[in-house]
Amino acid sequence: PLDSDLVMAAPCRIPVVVVLGCTGTGKSKLALELGRIFNGEIISADSMQIYKGLDIITNKVTIEERRICPHHLLDYLSPLHYNNTVVDFRNRALPIIDCLLKEKKVPIVVGGTNYYIESLLWKFLINQEDVNTAKVLADKSKVLQADQSHPSPLDTGIHPHQIPNANNEDTHENREGKESVQNHQLDHVEKPPVDRACGFNEDEEKVETSPSHMKKTHSSDDSTSSIKVEVLDQGQEKFENVDTTELHRQLQEVDPVSAQRIHPRNRRKISRALEVYEKFGVPISQIHKMQHEQTGGDNSISGPLRYEHTCIFWLQCEQSVLDERLDKRVDAMLQQGLIKELTDFHALYNASRIQENKKVDYTLGVFQSIGFKEFHKYLLLTEEKRNTDEGKKLFEEGVADLKVVTRRYARRQITWVKNRFLKRPGGGVPAVYSLDVTDVDKFDERVLKPAQETLQAILEERTPELKPIPAEKMAKNRPVHNVCEVCDGRIFTMESEWEAHLQSRKHKRMIEKKKRQAKHENQAKWIKLFETTAILDTLITRQQET
């Protein structure tokens, strides 16, 4: 490796460094080394490591490793806290990154929760500026439409001040009042809590994760967009008892563009679009259109990049080697005390759950961690039963399931990186540098050295010798509204989904089934005709005989 004393000696620009990679590739190891060499600090982007305790199951860096380089966003929430969202993470992380950049320190974002990382790199969330701009565009459009359908007040001899207000609520004063309320609502979005990076406190009891009424972030897939929309919870309660079909009808009235793009049964997206319109008075489709125009109208799946300078390293490993490494890691976690950690927390959780009369839910909070669901049956056994043949069997099943799920999760992480970084449509996609971590004995040579040299070149505004991974061309995915009559009226709102459906085995099987049904129905008609003819012939014959 290069001499760390020479690093950053020349005038330089500070990039945001991101270390990507599936579980088991050594992301933390590289981040620690880069942080030590480049005077950096690490921001954890792992949705499970935010919880206090449970160090084994969430695979946190050790206390000793944290002393090598300052870490942020670890251990700041109670594991019994279930409502943390990507918004809460972003609200905590951005002030840390901005503070580090001001102090000329390198922010190093590392973790396996890739959508957390996306929320930092791209401007995903709607803010007041987006709402105001969309309103202006919408108002201009309404004025143009009005001019085309109604004569000008000057042409009719009516003074503009004599025109009656069509909507008494839409006076200048009331608009100011509405905007004041909306600004107040969005103040919570723009003023996030911060952590100890610049003298702040991460303690959960002293710093709230987010305002109590701001708890949800949703991912919008309307048309070509995956822009996340930050909304308020109160609207969700309003829609709770309304039928999905009725909600879609309401959306059709206020935002026909979104209604056309969102599947009629996708209740979550329909509710979100209605809620945005209700809170801000602007169709969500108009806001998405405006955000896409900011990125050049290039069919991007998010808003513009947040940081001008970004350096992304992707740690990759041969699949067979990675699978073996992950299996060994599960064995190591068991030796470190994974079962005791799960058992202790399970007892704590059950005490809280029973007191609050709740059911076990593996989709909330730290229970989403790999391990809880796999060992659930074993954890329900008493200490005595765990030592029986049944207990040993359930334990072995849990171990096997944990290894399978871990390998499957790693594959999903790889797919996510490919789809969200390498295949990301449009501009505004930072360079991604691949590092081979297959041979752990050659980590310094194949991972640390090229990463260090690449980052140093970027700091000095030079072109790195290591070439970034070429972006993969991806066909544009246009919004459509296609109905497959063959498959009982299934609706498709994206072109790629429609084309994939037409080529699917299920669709082709349905075509063959319909053909057989048609053939059978046709045969049935002929049989019925023959039967009717035979009956008539019989009647005629009898009449003739009499």
TrEMBL record:
> Which InterPro entries does this chain map to?
Dimethylallyltransferase, IPT, P-loop_NTPase, Znf_C2H2_sf, Znf_C2H2_type
Region (Disordered): which ranges?
A: 144-225
* Keywords from the named record: ATP-binding, Nucleotide-binding, Transferase
Example of a GO MF term: ATP binding
Q: Which domain of life is it from?
A: Eukaryota
Family statement drawn from the similarity comment of this UniProt entry: Belongs to the IPP transferase family.
Q: Where is the C2H2-type domain?
A: 484-507
In terms of Pfam families, this protein maps to:
IPPT, zf-met
Q: What is this protein called?
A: C2H2-type domain-containing protein
Q: What organism does this protein naturally occur in?
A: Sinanodonta woodiana
Residue ranges with Basic and acidic residues bias: 169-194
